Amino acid sequence: MIDEGKLFDVLPLYYANMNSTKRTKVNQGGTSSGKTYSIMQLLFVKAMEVSNQIVTVVGQDIPNLKKGAYRDAKTIRNQSTELQLWFPKVNEGERLFRCINGSVIEFTSYKDMQDAKSGKRDYLFVNEANGVPFDIFWQLYMRTRKEVFIDYNPSARFWVHEKLLNRYDVQLILSDHRQNRFLSQQQHDMIEGIDDYELWKVYARGATGAITGLVFPRFNVVDALPP
Predict the structure, then answer these.
(1) Residue 172: enclosing H or E segment and its boundaries?
(2) pLDDT tens digits, 19-42
(3) DSSP 8-class letter at 34
């Protein structure tokens, strides 16, 4: 077994994902809770523990991946001398980390469900899943041999809530910034200081928010109009 303590500092969220016995781990959380970073740390370990593993990290599109999971992965590798020995080179053109044991971590996106039918993998990570259509996710899920990781900020209900959370093989892991000890007090205070309740609920507490994009987002349903 790989000793992650020799590779990097981890949050409790890392162990919550590592210790889960469910095939699919759904990470719902607020901003800066460490979801993406912790999952990427765990995927590095998964790739190192067994040779010739294929790890696919999927995002809404390549620009989003480059600003999110791919950037976190490069940071994690660059801050660990031992990880750099295990993953000597990063293929920037293909967004690929190749391990000395033959495992690979690839970062990609898919334009439609037909595109998603290409290739199989051992581990799947759908980053910011509310930007990825369900039909694409399902094709990737069905072609994943081992474990599936999902993360998102819950600004509104979407296919994860409707189609996954009631399944026996899915675990919901909740998180928010308060468990991230790597943030400064100023960062914690900024998040806690969000003055719009719906935004605070989503980004400070990781709770599922109201549907966005409505002209009048707060309203009551009544049986009859007042006289």
Answers:
(1) strand 170-175
(2) 999 999 999 999 999 999 999 999
(3) S
Q: Are strands 96-98 and 104-108 parallel, antiparallel or unpaired?
A: antiparallel
Question: From CA 59, how far away is CA 108, in angstroms rounded?
Answer: 7
Question: What DSSP assignment string belongs to 124-167?
Answer: EEETTGGGS-HHHHHHHHHTEEEEEEEEE--SS--HIIIIITTS
Going by C-alpha positions, the residue among 93, 96, 98, 94 that lies closest to residue 83 is 98
pTM comes to: 0.91
**pLDDT tens by residue, 114-148:** 999 989 999 999 999 999 999 999 999 999 999 99
Q: What does the alpha-carbon distance between residue 120 and residue 73 come to, in Å, rounded to a whole number?
A: 21
User: Which pLDDT score, from 0 to 100, does residue 218 have?
Assistant: 42
Place of tokens 């809530």: 161
Please state, rounded to an integer, the average pLDDT across all residues of the chain.
Answer: 92
Distance from C-alpha of 12 to C-alpha of 214, rounded to nearest angstrom: 36
Q: Identify whether the C-beta of residue 52 lies closer than 8 Å to the C-beta of residue 103.
A: yes
Taking the C-alpha atoms of residue 51 and residue 129, their distance in angstroms, rounded to an integer, is: 28
Euclidean distance between CA atoms 116 and 226, whole angstroms? 52
Compute the average pLDDT of residues 184-192. 96
Question: Can you list the positions of beta strands (E) in 13-143?
Answer: 24-29, 54-58, 90-91, 96-98, 104-108, 121-126
